Amino acid sequence: MPTATSFKALGKGNGFPFCLQTIDVLDRGDGNEYDHWVTLGGFKKTDSGSPTQSQIDTSLQNAMKLFWNAHKINGLARWNSSYYYVPSVTNSRNPNTTQLQPFERICLSSDFNDYNEENGETLDGINKIQLKIIPVLLKSGNIFLGYGVRNVIESLSESFGGDFATVQIGSIQSAEYDDNYNENNDYDYITFHNINFACRASCTLNSNINTTADASNLIASDGYHYARIDSLDFYTYWQVKFLHLIVV
Fold it and tell me: Rounded to whole angstroms, what are the CA distances from 144 to 48, 66, 104, 105, 136?
């Protein structure tokens, strides 16, 4: 793991350089509750009661760890085709760009985004691994649940004909449109690097080929497209000291 430069951050009094969006888990956009949700502290939809203060505190610590310390996501996005060639992708580090060091993320307005993608020569397909950290506040009605992140940590292999395989992890997952498309979908709650997430594994459903959508093992494949998430690397260093700016 790389070593980052120590720094002091003047924040918004919440551990981040911006105000966080609030997501109500009772409304996924159509008036129905999100199908799967979990805070970064481990309190999830299937739990009874309310989160403990320890779970809320852990969710904040993990949200800050992901935003400030995440370095890259490792995995595999691959497309096997007899007619087209798209280079495989194994991590989110784009070799053509310089990734922001943690101290440079102070100037971000809403999220930290790093992605590596490869396209076919005739734009026939794409392999992509993306690490995008968007911290959010999760609530259930008027009850504060803790901190989460949107589900844009992803490995994706897709051809522009529409066939695909993808694995996504985050804090909220919606199955609203699962029945509208010819897909094999699987969901599960996972612990990844000691952080709680909800995972969605999905791929094109092909009756002539065995397809795999395995959220617990972070794998999806339709026989041609393959997506997998293996690990998450963090920067080491330090101590980061946050000078909280109280906004009134």
Answer: 14, 20, 30, 26, 12
End-to-end, the C-alpha distance of the chain in Å comes to: 39
As given in the structure block, the two tokens for residue 226 are 């393959």
For residue 220, give the amino acid letter.
Answer: A
Report d(CA 183, CA 164) in Å as an integer: 9
Kindly state the tokens that stand for 146: 């803790």
pTM: 0.88
Residue 201 to residue 215: CA distance in whole angstroms:
5
Work out the burial of residue 203: count CB atoms within 10 Å of its CB; fewer than 13 is exposed, 13-18 middle, 19 or more buried: buried
In tens digits, what is the pLDDT along the chain, a chain of 248 residues?
576 666 565 556 678 888 999 999 999 989 899 999 999 999 999 999 999 999 999 999 999 999 999 999 999 999 988 788 899 999 999 888 877 788 788 888 778 888 999 998 777 899 999 999 999 999 999 999 999 998 789 999 999 888 999 999 999 999 988 887 889 999 999 999 999 999 999 999 876 788 999 999 999 999 999 999 999 999 886 454 544 444 43
Of 233, 84, 219, 95, the closest CA to residue 165 belongs to 219
CA distances for 198 relative to 76, 167, 247, angstroms: 19, 11, 32
Beta-strand runs (E) in the chain: 8-11, 21-24, 36-37, 70-79, 89-91, 112-119, 125-133, 135-140, 143-149, 153-159, 164-170, 172-173, 183-192, 195-204, 212-214, 219-221, 225-234, 241-244
